[in-house]
Amino acid sequence: MTQHVVARTAEIPPGERVIVEVEGRQVGVFNVDGEYVAFLHRCPHMGGPLCEGQVIGLVESSGPGDVRLDDGRKFLTCPLHGWEFDVHTGQSYFDPKRVRARRYPVEVRSGADMVPGPYTAETFDVVVDSDYVIVETGRREKRRRNEHQDGERGASS
Ligand code: FES
């Protein structure tokens, strides 16, 4: 399985989402109460823009006058026809045995733990000598030597 860095955690605060493109697919990455979850941005019902929907708690009722909000169970609601999908399993609330939204595993890693990339910037050794900061490069030393030799030639002619 290929992993992709899609955002910094600071870019997705609790209650927010980003929709990114990964391997040609649009994927919504959500921060649900500090937990990151990811869904394919395509509803399994009729292909609606699932990840543009609201994340809401489960509303239950045993009958008229009885409405309870279970904020411990969260659902992603498709904006097209309102189908709801459990953010932890992807299962449809309407038909949990047959319909499921496509989820992707998400993990958070420290930048220090990331595998270094293949590209490396050119670096130079730096020496602090008394009041001067000196950056060492081969070119400058060569140029200085050439200037010194030119000076000697000028003095001898
Ligand atoms: S397309 Fe999502 S509920 Fe119909």
From TrEMBL:
MF annotations from Gene Ontology: 2 iron, 2 sulfur cluster binding; metal ion binding; monooxygenase activity; oxidoreductase activity, acting on paired donors, with incorporation or reduction of molecular oxygen
Report the InterPro entries cross-referenced here.
Answer: Rieske_2Fe-2S, Rieske_2Fe-2S_sf
Keywords recorded for this protein, A-Z = 2Fe-2S, Iron, Iron-sulfur, Metal-binding
Q: Tell me the ranges covered by the Rieske domain, including all copies.
A: 4-115
* Entry keyword annotation includes Ligase: no
Q: Which Pfam families match?
A: Rieske
Q: Does the keyword Transcription regulation apply?
A: no
Protein name per its UniProtKB record = Nitrite reductase/ring-hydroxylating ferredoxin subunit
Q: Which organism is it from?
A: Pseudonocardia endophytica
